[in-house]
Amino acid sequence: MQTLRQLSWFFRAYWKRYVIGISVLFVIDVLMLWPPKLIGDTVDSIRNSSLTDADLTQTVVILLVLGVSLYGLRFLWRYLLNGGALILERTLRERLFAHLTRMTPSFFHRKRSGDLMAVATNDIPAIEQTASTGVLTLVDALFMTVLTLGVMVTAIDWKLTLAALIPMPFLAWSTAYYGKLLHDRFYLAQEAFGEMNDHVQQSVSGVRVLRAFVQEKADIEAYRRVSEKTLERNVSVSRIDALFEPTIAIIIGFSFLIGLGYGTYLVFTSAISLGDLVAFNLYLGLLIWPMFAFGWLVNVLQRGGASHKRFTELMVEQPDVTEAANPVTSQIANTVEARHFSFTYPGTDKPALTDISFRLGEGETLGIVGRTGSGKSTLCRALLHQYQMKEQVLLIGGIPIEGLAFDTLREKIGYVPQEHLLFSRTIAENVAFGKPQATTEEVMHALELAEMKRDLAQFREGLQTMVGEKGVTLSGGQKQRISIARALLMDAGILILDDSLSAVDARTEESILRHLRQERADKTTIITAHRLSAVQHAQLILVLDEGRIVEQGTHDELMHRNGWYAEQYRRQQMEHDVAG
């Protein structure tokens, strides 16, 4: 019942649909009480030899009319209640999707993709079942039980009714006991399903690596273990699920046995008529559904409760970064400044960045270089405000980033990450992802700036070529250039290229950088790179080592100091000359 209470916000929002549906159910239950009485009276009329053709015809017509009426009313309640539950399912999916899009990277570090998919594919339908089947069985079983018992007590015999109900306390105890077991086991089964989803997602995403290291058999074996664990937990759920129906059937069978035995005695003692006994057994038959429904209700509610718990645990998660109460939404300058900025990733003790300070004016380029793990990408993510940090240390347009509206910040910054994610859409749709209204000419211009235009000739369908899941049909360099074109099309005031030229050759890199300097003369660009030729034109170059700035200046200044930058640049030039 707690799950239904937790869904009360939905029932209140669609109260008309549920009130009408429940009212129709009540009418159906009332009409269902009429046929047993008619049949009992007909049996008594036959026994007394008082049944006429007109009486029989009238009874048959009434039963036919009732059948047609019940058919239409049952269609109506199914449309109202099940339709309402489908609206709930859609609403929960929309809330889940919106919630996931608001979460910061740390959330996705904690949560496995398989668990998130399991909530969307398994848990939300289980909650939907609670709002449809659960409401139906609860209301219908209560109405039918109360109405049927009322008729049995008043119209047949209260002693016979009471005797037939003797086994019912055992039903209440067994359903409560099985329900507790079912809730716990179903929760564990859903967790195992999430693990299996996560394994499949990782295996499909990393299929090239699996094949490269000849680990297909090992991965299949690992999946077999995960799937067996999922199977075992679902079988344990099924064992409890399978006990519901036989237990209820046995208890109901005892009720029929008592009713038939004691009822026969009452007929022989003339306490009730034969027709009353027939009607009583028909009414007792009507109670079969409510008894099964109560067991089914416990099953549905326990499954729905376990799923709602998992859904709620996910939805109560809050993003690490929150928008300011009164954020700045106006246009801001294309300047970037760091004031003694330090940052430590959540859950770690070692600082990723320490005492970073620089200022970048409009139209200038910042180059960030250093060894792997020196903090280059961390600084880029910090500028995107992906993590919570100290106030007044990172400024965009002279305004601390924590004071900017999220939309304003994201519209101001174009970002090309190291991991180039392309969607399973056409090249044109991938490039125009951030600007869906872009014309074909604008898309082609962005591809030309990214040195991708000539590659289109390799594709039979040109811009309309489907790139496949995560750009599987493209080379690494093509994926990088499409990602760059996507960012260039947005024409953001600040562009961040996080090692986004690593998969292209030196000549293509030089062409792309030349286009950037021409097209973005009045805009700000930040480039992180391992190949120093990508940043030698920058007005300011930062050399990071273990999260600290160890060198900074222009290319000429850093070469004159003869430090790490100069040594690395000369080595790369020698390698280029040898390769050339």
TrEMBL record:
GO terms for molecular function: ABC-type oligopeptide transporter activity; ATP binding; ATP hydrolysis activity. Residues 336-571 form the ABC transporter domain. It is found in: Cell membrane. Keywords: ATP-binding, Cell membrane, Membrane, Nucleotide-binding, Transmembrane, Transmembrane helix, Transport. Coiled coil: none annotated. It is a multi-pass membrane protein. The lineage of its organism: Bacteria, Bacillati, Bacillota, Bacilli, Bacillales. Gene3D superfamilies: ABC transporter type 1, transmembrane domain, P-loop containing nucleotide triphosphate hydrolases. The chain crosses the membrane at residues 18-36, 56-77, 135-156, 162-179, 248-268, 280-301. Residues 19-303 form the ABC transmembrane type-1 domain. This is ABC transporter ATP binding/permease protein. PROSITE patterns: ABC_TM1F (PS50929), ABC_TRANSPORTER_1 (PS00211), ABC_TRANSPORTER_2 (PS50893). It comes from Brevibacillus brevis (strain 47 / JCM 6285 / NBRC 100599).
